[in-house]
Design a protein that fits this description.
The complex is a heterodimer of chains A (about 280) and B (about 280). By secondary structure, chain A is mostly helical. Chain A has one domain (about 25-280). Chain A is built from 13 helices and no strands. Chain A has helices at about 15-25, 30-40, 50-70, 80-105, 105-110, 110-115, 120-130, 135-155, 165-190, 195-205, 225-230, 235-245, 250-280. In chain A, helix 4 runs antiparallel to helix 8. The termini of chain A are far apart. Helices cover about 70% and strands about 0% of the residues of chain B. Chain B is built from twelve helices and no strands. Chain B has helices spanning about 15-25, 25-40, 55-70, 80-100, 100-110, 120-125, 125-150, 160-190, 190-205, 220-225, 230-240, 250-280. The radius of gyration of chain B is 21 Å and the shape is globular. Chain B starts with 13 loop residues before the first helix and ends with a helix. The chains are: A mainly alpha (about 280), B mainly alpha (about 280). At the A-B interface, helix 3 and helix 10 of A face helix 3 and helix 9 of B.
């Protein structure tokens, strides 16, 4: 009698943020597995294989650069338009791809979720890994374009200076921002497919509200604050400031973007934790 | 005495297929209806998604490209310019997207009952056409708005409107012709519609919709005419507003090319459909 074992069901007793982070760490191999699977899904079952990712990323870049730079004559300051354009596309793609893919995380793994337990947040996170492939490729193109302009113009348009750290910081802010939104959108998308259409719709416009294809200088000065209300504007400008000469440094607005990101992140963690179990019942 | 029966595979020609599609025309509504149901299942708003705010993306682009970047528009208001290009582009792009998915969406129907398969790409395009009809309505409203606001009717009310109409029809027929190929390919290569989506984004940029052809640097302008959509879009704009570059010979040549492609597409489709359906 005295050696009888007492069983305690301790589910959901450690719901805090730290406990969840620790749990994701414990499941890191599963996370790596899902990330790999998501990256492979970019080219698996296509006839062209890996080269398909490159074609899909590169062709729109050069066509966009031609149309906006050569046909529409969008101003780009002292640097060639291609460089200006790429320096906007890198941070933008760090937002766009991870958000769109991450939001599908719960939805595409619906079947799996009903069968076994993994910390749910791993699924959007794993999907987001696939979204980072494209900006990485654009970064390579950017490096190639720099070398090209070094040989034709004789100028290095990027200085190796501590300013590059600002670019790095802005990439981090954008990735965290994308993840914070994913905490909300992946839940919505698991509940109703509308969320997917709505998200594509919104992200489609969002780029036009963000100085990706055009510089801030074309926006009338008294309206620029409106542009900066968009939390992506300052990080993208900051990225440009870090890589290209003679861009503005919007550091005050950059901190605003950081604050907005932090708020959405905190809200997202709370929201995800409070809705995931009820959502799992519905899918 | 006994009668001889011979079973041979039948390859109906393009015209026989057209005749059969016509006899089964009552299926169009049913297929369009089914397409909407399938596309928007598990959504709250349902097929209303097809009509959500067609104006907003156009207004936004007009703001960025017309107002901020000052892209030219051949002397008519930029909004009107963009809306016109978008209408004719959407006839092509939306029809092509819906047409390409047709076999994939209605293959289960083909397993159950007989109907001419060629009706599927065509029937599946009705949602796209509904959406375009709405945009044409917006275009008419915009013309009326500018007539009041600018005191000028940009629309030319003469026989040239027929050119615009034929440009619309040609855009649709081109989409149909390509759909006869892509819908078959889509059966074996599932991601063809993703590839097509990417291709259409690039194609959109290379077609003079956001910018007038006159703004393309001289060195590249000749190349732009290799794009059939450039000819269609320019003809459509010229017919409505008398702006842009209109070459009747190019348009006639295009009409001929589209007709050839349509016949080739129908032939390809009717030869491949049996095999494709059997492999599902």
């Amino acid at each position: 009698m005295s050696d009888s074992v007492r069983w305690v069901v301790a589910a959901d007793t450690h719901e805090g943020f730290l406990a969840r982070t620790r749990e994701v760490w414990q499941y890191r191999r599963i996370l790596a597995f899902f990330s790999l699977k998501a990256v492979q899904s970019l080219y698996a079952k296509t006839h062209l294989g890996v080269s398909w990712i490159f074609i899909r990323t590169l062709v729109p870049l050069f066509v966009g650069s031609f149309v906006f730079g050569s046909v529409m004559n969008v101003p780009s300051g002292d640097v060639p338009y291609l460089l200006f354009f790429l320096a906007g596309q890198i941070p933008w793609n760090c937002f766009d791809g991870p958000l769109i893919r991450g939001s599908r995380g719960l939805e595409v793994n619906r079947m799996l979720l009903t069968k076994l337990y993994v910390p749910r947040i791993i699924l959007p996170l794993g999907q987001m890994a696939a979204g980072v492939v494209e900006p990485a490729i654009i970064l390579l193109v950017f490096a190639g374009a720099l070398v090209h302009y070094r040989t034709t113009d004789g100028v290095w348009h990027v200085m190796a200076s501590p300013r590059l750290l600002a670019s790095l910081a802005s990439i981090v802010v954008i990735l965290v921002f994308a993840f914070s939104l994913t905490l909300w959108t992946s839940i919505w998308q698991a509940r109703a497919r509308d969320a997917r259409f709505a998200l594509r719709y919104v992200v489609g416009f969002w780029m036009y509200f963000t100085p990706v294809i055009y510089p801030m200088s074309v926006v009338p000065p008294h309206l620029q604050w409106l542009m900066y209300l968009n939390p992506l504007t300052a990080p993208i400008e900051m990225f440009r400031w870090g890589t290209l000469p003679d861009a503005d440094n919007p550091w005050l607005w950059f901190w605003y973007s950081v604050a907005v990101t932090a708020a959405i992140f905190a809200g997202g963690v709370w929201y995800f934790a409070h809705t995931e179990s009820t959502t799992m019942d519905k899918i | 005495m006994s009668e001889r029966w011979e079973a041979t595979p039948r390859y109906p020609g393009a015209f026989a297929t057209i005749g059969e599609v016509w006899r089964y025309r009552r299926l169009f509504r049913f297929i369009g209806d089914r397409a909407l149901r399938k596309m928007y299942r598990r959504t709250v708003l349902g097929w209303l998604w097809l009509f959500i705010n067609p104006l907003f993306p156009i207004a936004l682009r007009a703001l960025v490209f017309g107002a901020l970047l000052g892209v030219g528009s051949d002397g008519i208001p930029y909004f009107l310019f963009l809306l016109t290009g978008t209408v004719v582009w959407d006839v092509f792009a939306a029809s092509l997207m819906w047409g390409t998915r047709s076999l994939e969406m209605h293959g289960d129907l083909s397993d159950q009952i007989y109907h001419p398969r060629a009706i599927l790409p065509l029937g599946n395009m009705t949602p796209a056409l509904l959406n375009v009809a709405l945009k044409i309505g917006v275009l008419v409203l915009a013309v009326i708005f500018y007539a009041i606001y600018d005191g000028r009717v940009y629309l030319r009310l003469d026989v040239a409107l027929l050119w615009s109409l034929s440009a619309l029809v040609l855009a649709f027929l081109l989409a149909l012709a390509i759909s006869f190929f892509t819908s078959i390919w889509g059966e074996s290569v599932r991601d063809i519609r993703f590839a097509l989506g990417q291709l259409l984004t690039i194609w959109y940029l290379l077609t003079p919709i956001l910018y007038p052809l006159s703004q393309v640097p001289d060195a590249y302008r000749g190349w732009m005419f290799l794009n059939p959509l450039a000819i269609i879009v320019e003809t459509f704009k010229w017919g409505l507003f008398g702006v842009g570059q209109f070459y009747p010979e190019a348009f006639a040549l295009m009409t001929f090319a589209v007709a050839m492609l349509l016949v080739a597409g129908l032939n390809y489709f009717s030869r491949s459909e049996a095999r494709t359906i059997a492999q599902r």
